[in-house]
Design a protein that fits this description.
Length: 457
């Protein structure tokens, strides 16, 4: 059922209508079924279940989310999203505790997570074969072409791939047969190739350090150098593939004009009047949509960084190490969070509360999970989330010798948690049940806590 949850949540975040229709109701059904299965499994094994500090801290975080309904600017929305988040954590927590004493079950769960991500990657390739125009975001003057697959945008599915790559690394290096090594290694390379094709830097930020950590944990000193070389080669190839995505030259750069807004009903000629007519006709498809992305003019002349009237509409060129406007958005998010520093505006209200008034930043979210927690649940929520991660780090240090000696599935969970925590810096996702990577990230957190507790007995 964990496989089904991964697939259906991804479907619910797809730009492909047929897939989206299946995923929207299906992901909630999958969550309910998973909770029921996990509850039955936990009840059967109730005598062996043990609460751990990370589980307790995660429960406290869910409590903070629910309590924030009392002061939320949108109480109903906060309550609904807090309940769904709590149900997800409860289901994954019960499943993690049940699998903590069963290495075979734990391994199967990790395989389910990997197979779910691989299936989505293959689906993206098939969609590209059928409709390449929709499976790839065309290159613009600011960004190279980026692979979308069946996701909503180029960053949607790579977020899942990033937290799942460490699982593939663990399965590859713990395979007992050549066939197993090839299968799991190939699956891992497929995910890395998908990340590269999408140009998602955030996914690499999580996948790379987590993969190296898993490599260290699964090898003894005599075999470690060769394993690290293999991991380094795979990561270098993925980074190189991402860096090769270069912007396409724009035919002509529009200039800023007065009285034109992104949603003000202006015609294409009004919006892009500085583009010559033949080029403009070439940009417009028969159905009236644009063949390639052309930067729309903002309705807000006071946007931070917006060119003055008569000046060329500059674009932020997307580079391997650039922030794509995130740095400015983070500063803005901090300023907003300081208005309600201790308790926030209410869980689940990020896209309703955050105000994007930055010219080069295009998102309804801050794109930082830590700042997102602060904006929604205040310093109380940030402290609870960071506490969960600190407890995991403490357990990793404490149980380091046992993990390296036994190469348990907990090793893969460590990788998931590290990748997810790193990717929480450039992405707002750790609290969104509908995000493709959230379930995998929280399963890694909860399972690692339960697993290491059993190792300490």
């Amino acid at each position: 059922m964990l496989f089904g949850l991964v697939i259906l949540v991804a479907f619910g975040s797809s730009a492909v209508h047929v897939v989206y229709v299946l995923g929207q109701p299906g992901r909630w059904l999958a969550l309910v079924v998973l909770l029921a299965i996990a509850t039955c499994l936990a009840f059967t094994l109730r005598s062996t279940l043990r609460l751990t500090a990370p589980l307790i801290a995660s429960g406290f975080l869910c409590g903070v989310a629910l309590v924030s309904t009392a002061w939320s600017v949108l109480p109903r929305l906060t309550f609904e999203r807090a309940v769904s988040f709590a149900l997800l954590v409860a289901a994954l927590g019960l499943l993690a505790m049940a699998a903590a004493n069963n290495r075979e079950l734990a391994r199967r769960l990790m395989i389910a997570l990997l197979l779910g991500a691989v299936a989505l990657a293959f689906a993206g390739i098939l969609f590209y074969i059928v409709d390449p125009g929709r499976a790839v975001q065309a290159a613009t003057a600011s960004s190279g072409s980026r692979f979308i697959g069946i996701g909503q945008n180029p960053d949607t599915l790579p977020l899942l791939y990033g937290v799942t790559v460490p699982v593939g690394v663990w399965l590859t290096f713990t395979a007992t047969t050549v066939r197993g090594w090839r299968v799991w290694g190939g699956a891992t390379l497929l995910l890395l190739a998908s990340i590269s094709a999408s140009g998602s830097r955030g996914a690499l930020i999580g996948a790379a350090p987590a993969s190296f950590l898993v490599t260290v944990l699964t090898h003894q000193r005599d075999r470690l150098p060769k394993a690290l070389a293999i991991t380094a080669a795979a990561m270098a190839a993925s980074v190189a593939g991402t860096a090769l995505s270069v912007p396409a030259p724009a035919p002509k750069v529009p200039t800023a004009v007065a009285g034109v807004g992104a949603s003000g009903g202006a015609t294409l000629a009004d919006r892009y009047g500085s583009i010559d007519a033949p080029t403009l006709r070439g940009l417009v498809a028969p159905d009236g949509s644009l063949r390639v992305h052309v930067p729309e003019l903002s309705a807000d002349p006071n946007e931070v960084g917006r060119p003055r009237l008569g000046q060329p509409l500059t674009q932020s060129i997307r580079t391997l190490f650039g922030s794509s406007g995130r740095a400015q958005a983070w500063v803005g998010g901090i300023e907003q969070s300081r208005k309600r520093p201790f308790f926030g505006f209410g869980f689940g209200t990020e896209e309703r509360v955050f105000i994007d008034h930055f010219y080069i930043f295009q998102s309804a979210r801050i794109e930082n999970s830590y700042l997102g927690f602060w904006l929604q649940t205040g310093l109380l929520g940030v402290a609870a989330f960071v506490t969960v991660l600190v407890l995991l780090a403490a357990r990793l240090v404490r149980f380091w010798p046992q993990i390296r000696a036994r190469t348990e599935p907990g090793t893969a969970a460590v990788g998931i948690a590290v990748a997810g925590a790193a990717m929480a810096v450039p992405q707002s996702y750790a609290y969104s049940v509908g995000n493709v990577a959230t379930a995998t990230f929280w399963f890694g957190i909860l399972f690692f806590g339960a697993m290491t507790f059993e190792q300490s007995r």
